[in-house]
Amino acid sequence: MDITILGQQLLGYIPLGDIVLYMAPLNLFMFVSALVFTTLIAISRTETQVEAEFGTLKDRGVKVDIKEFKIRRFLAIVCGLATAGAMITGDLFDFTLFVCLIGIVNIGIVSAVKQIDVLNAAFQYGLVAMIATLPLFGGAALILASTGTISLLEIANIPTTAMMAFGSILLLLGVAGETGVAPFYATKAEMFRTPGSPFLLIIHLSSLLVIVRLIEILLIINKPF
Amino acid sequence: MSRIGKIWNALANPKRIPRLYSLILGIILLAGFMIPLALNDNQLYPRPTPQLQISEQDPLAPYDRGGIPLIEPGIVKAQYPQFSEKIGFVTGYLSPIAWSVSNTTLYYGTSIYSSPGGLIDEILYYTRGFDTVLESSILMMAFVIASWVALNFTMRREE
């Protein structure tokens, strides 16, 4: 297969049956950076926050205990691996599955904290993530119905129809809900107000990388240029 | 300008986000009814004519894909046949129990026997096998989180 995707020459591919992971320069760069960041957080310790109070000198340190630390580290590593997988997958349904995995692990990373408002925000984020699976998988299904394939290498050669454009709008809405970008940012922003910095940052990084990858996929599906 | 500021402030409340999201999703889904359906006739997995296998009194109807296990491949199509060379070789396999049941009834193909050890779904386990791995890992992560929360927040809550 000698193909260019969005002007990038493919450096190679990993065939897993019909699911072909492809390596173009942009995808490979994002894959490696996700893996490097995952390694960094796997070997680091959490931060300790200091809560100050106005009018008094009582400062409190908010620490993460060892059990919470372990489960968070595990879920953060899974989140990093899922992000790395979403970067190089060449299959639309596979991409939605990776995004779904990232969403559920994001809830898990903050579900271990003991601050009530953070847990409330995580609950609301969980509701959005659950609703978002409908447009996410619905969009992939509409694209499958209108093209007959969900392999991005094949979709790149199929002319766009109105139904494919609608499917990609649904896909965009699904990923926006799962990753919590504007205007749905409030739940995720509240989730960050808790100690345990390197593990919380993977939530941020995974959203960022998934959005970049989604833009690439939308360009492949809709071919505006 | 102050109106935009009010909108941003309203959006900063996490409780409003699921409602806002559902509203936007509902509007887009309703707008979707306007989109003309353009189904691709050249689908990947072709089926025989409806009722054809049933009229032929085939006990595996409507899931008969033909083929002899490990000798002759059945009819299973793949997107990239070059990556799944052995496709179709086990699709005709029947376990001994499944084989004896299929000899007694004409409705084997639609019965519960046809699932495990019966007609093997090669799309699920061979050509798209990685999806099955991912789906079960999503389920496993959900169970890990739920059991951690149940063990530490519900059963052992000291403070």
Describe the protein's topology:
The complex is a heterodimer of chains A (225) and B (159).
Chain A: E1 4-5, E2 8-9, E3 12-16, E4 19-23, H1 25-42, E5 49-51, E6 60-62, H2 66-88, H3 92-111, H4 116-147, H5 152-155, H6 162-179, H7 186-191, H8 197-222
Chain B: H1 2-11, H2 17-31, H3 52-55, H4 96-104, H5 122-127, H6 129-155
Write up this protein:
The complex is a heterodimer of chains A (225) and B (159). Chain A is mostly helical and 225 residues long. In chain A, helix 2 runs antiparallel to helix 3 (92-111) and helix 6 runs antiparallel to helix 8. Chain A has helices at 25-42, 66-88, 92-111, 116-147, 152-155, 162-179, 186-191, 197-222, and strands at residues 4-5, 8-9, 12-16, 19-23, 49-51, 60-62. Chain A has a two-stranded antiparallel sheet. Chain A has one domain. The model of chain A has no long low-confidence stretch (mean pLDDT 88). Chain B is built from 6 helices and no strands. Chain B is extended and about 75 Å long. Among the domains of chain B are: 2-34; 52-127, no CATH class. The two termini of chain B are 47 Å apart. With 159 residues, chain B is mainly alpha-helical. At the A-B interface, helix 2, helix 3, helix 4, helix 6 and helix 7 of A face helix 2 and helix 6 of B.
